[in-house]
Q: What sequence folds into this?
């Protein structure tokens, strides 16, 4: 996927394209990392690159279930564990899950006739406004873009702290961009 979203022809396509782009840049923060680096909490927070990717997949999945009205028992333990990789959990497994979540999101959103469709607010969650009864599907997509972008930024900082890898050199390495005098593709420290 290129570094920029391409041309879009309508709102739905644009929202899904920007969500896909944010997923991509989040995933890119894991490019070339070892299993240990994926689990490294390199800042004062306990957040890790692998945990943030897992959390964004879990959050997106939850919002699609909310749109569909699927029951989701409140489980703070599950929420807390969504921020870290379990022992033995691999990046390939996390990416496969995220791919499945993304495919379901695209399918569900593609089948919704009107992005103004109401999505009930779960008032049992302390972060949701108590004076609002419904969002729209459009709002949910914008929120998912915001949430994924926020965590991609967290992952960027963690990644840079782990091994110095930053967004454009990682993009260059992942996409095979040629080296220039002003942009050098990321390489592992041992390379």
A:
């Amino acid at each position: 996927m290129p570094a920029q979203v391409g041309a879009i022809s309508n709102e739905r396509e644009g929202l899904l394209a920007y969500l896909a782009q944010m997923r991509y840049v989040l995933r890119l923060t894991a490019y070339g990392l070892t299993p240990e680096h994926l689990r490294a909490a390199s800042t004062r927070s306990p957040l890790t690159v692998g945990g943030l990717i897992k959390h964004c997949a879990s959050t997106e999945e939850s919002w699609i279930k909310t749109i569909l009205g699927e029951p989701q028992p409140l489980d703070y333990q599950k929420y807390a564990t969504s921020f870290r990789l379990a022992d033995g959990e691999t990046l390939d497994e996390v990416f496969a899950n995220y791919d499945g979540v993304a495919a379901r999101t695209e399918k569900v959103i593609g089948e919704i006739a009107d992005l103004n469709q109401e999505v009930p607010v779960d008032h049992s969650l302390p972060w949701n406004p108590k004076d609002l009864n419904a969002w729209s599907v459009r709002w949910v997509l914008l929120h998912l873009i915001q949430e994924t972008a926020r965590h991609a930024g967290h992952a960027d900082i963690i990644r840079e702290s782990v091994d110095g890898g930053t967004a454009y050199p990682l993009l260059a390495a992942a996409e095979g961009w040629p080296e220039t005098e002003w942009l050098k593709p990321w390489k592992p420290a041992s390379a």
Remarks:
- The chain has a mean pLDDT of 94.
- Strands lie at 118-120, 134-136.
